[in-house]
Amino acid sequence: MKVWLVRGGKHGETEALSLDNGEAAIGFSEVAGVGHAGSREDIAKMIRSNDAGALDGAIINRSAQLYAFAHRIEKGDLIVMPLKGKSKIAIGIAEAGYKYLPERPEGKHSIQVTWNAPDVPRSSFKQDLLHSFGAFMTVCQIKRNNALARIETVMKGKVDPGDSTLEVEPSDDSQGAITGTDLEAAISDQISRHIQSHFSGHGLARLLAAILSADGYNTKVSPPGPDGGVDILAGKGFFGP
User: Fold this and answer.
1) Which of 111, 142, 160, 166 is least enclosed, having the fewest CB within 10 Å?
2) Is the dihedral of CA 33, 37, 40, 42 positive or negative?
3) Is 38 found in the same domain as 130?
4) Any idea which of 90-99, 153-162, 229-238 has the lowest mean pLDDT?
C-alpha cells in the first residue's frame, strides 16, 4: 500500500466533484487520455504534440504526474486530498483504476476513491506531515515520515504519533519534476500551531479582541472567571460597547 497526494486543482476546482462522485479527479485538460501510454516519454510526446511551446521542465513535470496518476496508483492505496480554504484534508482508498472522461469541462482524468475520512482537520497532523501534504504538485507519492502508518492512525480517530524525519520524497516517476510547497497552506498551519501553543483560555479572548479592534470594532473583554458564556462584546459605531 502506498500514499498519494492528489490535489483537486490549484483553487480546489475539482474537490466537490471528487467528493460527491467518489473519485479523485484532476485537471491537465490539455492532455487527452493517457491510459494507453506505456511510459512517461509517451505522455511527454502527447504533451509536445498539443503544446509545441511548452518548456522541457513543464513537460517533465506534467508527464511524470499523469503517468503516476494513471499507472502507478493501485487499488488499496491511500489518497490524500488537501481541501483548499477549509483547513481540512480528505482521505480515501483507491478502489479502481484510471479512466478518462472527455465530456467533462474539468476533472477529465479520474480514479475511483472511497473517501472514508472526507473532512479530517489539518490540526490532526503534526507539522512534518503537513509539510508533506503541502508539496506543490497535483500528484506525488508520500513515502517518508512513516506517513502510511500515521495516516491510518488518524483515520481511526487517534492522535498522529509523529515521526523523526521531515521531508517528502517524490515518487520515482516524478524525478526531475518541479516541486515546492503550498505556501498559503504552510503559513496557515504555522499560524494555527502558534495560536494553539501560545493562546488559550482568556488569552485567546484577548487575541480575538485585538483582531476585532484592528478591523475597526470597539471591544470589551470580560475579566477572567464566570462570565455567563460571553467573553467578548464587539460592535461598530452606535452598537459599540
Assistant:
1) 166
2) negative
3) yes
4) 229-238
**What percent of the chain is helix, strand and coil (3-state, nearest 5)?**
35, 20, 40
Q: Which three cell numbers stand for residue 194?
A: 502558534
Residues 6+ apart with CB under 8 A from 98: 34, 35, 69, 70, 71, 73, 109, 110, 111
Measured distance CA(228)–CA(1) in Å, rounded = 51
Q: Are 65 and 47 in contact (CB under 8 A)?
A: no
* All residues at 6 or more sequence positions from 56 whose CB lies less than 8 Å from its CB, including other chains: none
> How far is Cα 178 from Cα 166, in angstroms, rounded to an integer?
19
If asked whether residues 121 and 227 sit together in one domain, one would say no
Q: What are the angstrom distances between the C-alpha of 174 and each of 148, 181, 230? A: 19, 15, 53
The whole model's pTM is what?
0.69
Q: Which residue range(s) make up the domain with 59?
A: 3-182
Is the residue at 190 inside a domain? no
- In this predicted structure, the answer to whether residue 2 has a pLDDT above a threshold of 60 is yes
pLDDT of residue 221: 80
The cell numbers describing 101, all together, are 472522461
